[in-house]
Hints:
Helix content: 25-40%
Number of strands: 15
Largest sheet: 4 strands, mixed
Shape: elongated
CATH topology of the largest domain: Leucine-rich repeat, LRR (right-handed beta-alpha superhelix)
Distance between the termini: 188 Å
Strand content: 5-15%
Number of domains: 3
Order of helices and strands: HHHHEEHEEEEEEEEEEEEE
Strand order of the largest sheet: 1-2-3-5
Amino acid sequence: xxxxxxxxxxxxxxxxxxxxxxxxxxxxxxxxxxxxxxxxxxxxxxxxxxxxxxxxxxxxxxxxxxxxxxxxxxxxxxxxxxxxxxxxxxxxxxxxxxxxxxxxxxxxxxxxxxxxxxxxxxxxxxxxxxxxxxxxxxxxxxxxxxxxxxxxxxxxxxxxxxxxxxxxxxxxxxxxxxxxxxxxxxxxxxxxxxxxxxxxxxxxxxxxxxxxxxxxxxxxxxxxxxxxxxxxxxxxxxxxxxxxxxxxxxxxxxxxxxxxxxxxxxxxxxxxxxxxxxxxxxxxxxxxxxxxxxxxxxxxxxxxxxxxxxxxxxxxxxxxxxxxxxxxxxxxxxxxxxxxxxxxxxxxxx
Length: 350
């Protein structure tokens, strides 16, 4: 074969090969384009589905991650409202609990004296065991006492009344206490004492009956009982404690038994209506014991008295007389603040 023919044959073959290659390339390119388009469609569908799901999440408020709000502290409205309601309920429950606690605490509260003098006087001498266990059984209360709310009549049956601290219901100046309702008191035989501040500031108490079994009347026992009219102190009592009858402004008559040897500080202070006679065995009269007892015309201090405290007859006027013996050895301060006429010599003579 000549050289020219060979070249033409190769040329022809080359063109055919070239066409085949081109066709093959086009076919391959078309397939790639188709795949790209399919992938693009799939991605678009996926993104659409994701957007729909994100919209649902935002509406439900259940997916903070899908929240388009860039604020990291963002709280969906539904959750915010729910949390606000829960907090409001908790605050209301807490406030109700505090109010209930205050009411319960105030119902049986032991009041403090109004005047500083009362608390200092009542705590300055002999003490009584007030630490007995408190009774929470309502049936026990009626073994110790009965109280008629209509008549205001209180009856005490035993010393357990004091030991159970039931008496704290009847001491005054205490919101919710029964002190203002007590008018008459009867203490049954067998009871041996009236506790410190046992009837403190029972302002409406008019009378009290004490049995002969009583041996002790406590400090401030009847202080502030401004409606009390009279009282007979049992014969076994030997000591009228500090401030026992202080501020009993309507108290007119007190029968003091012959066994009493001590009348304490402020014992009858501010008893403006009082009249009384001192017992023959009396040995000591405390400070301000008869302060402002302006209704006593004459008082005889027995020769057995060896001590009279400072200002024992404070605020006495020139219309009153105090009879004393020539042998008194008392300090001069007993007469401070007193303008009464002092009569020395034969006791009781005019």
